[in-house]
Amino acid sequence: MKILDELRDCETIAISGHVRPDGDCVGSCMAMALYLRDNLPDARVDVFLEDFSEELEKNIAGTDTVNHDYVTDVEHY
What we know:
Layout: H1 3-7, E1 12-16, H2 23-39, E2 44-48, H3 54-59
Parallel strand pairs: 1-2
């Protein structure tokens, strides 16, 4: 089973990590988000994470799109 096959018909996708996200967590979430955004351009992909260090924010692509307050206009993911 491939993730793109599972998510192909999704309009909204939410990604989240664990409490107190470290580099592995942030990197994994952002890698998945960037992959899905590239391969499913019609889907909305949101990443929800607690605040993390400025170092991670500077060094991991896409972190400027992370939702830290968990507020969204999407009713269902």
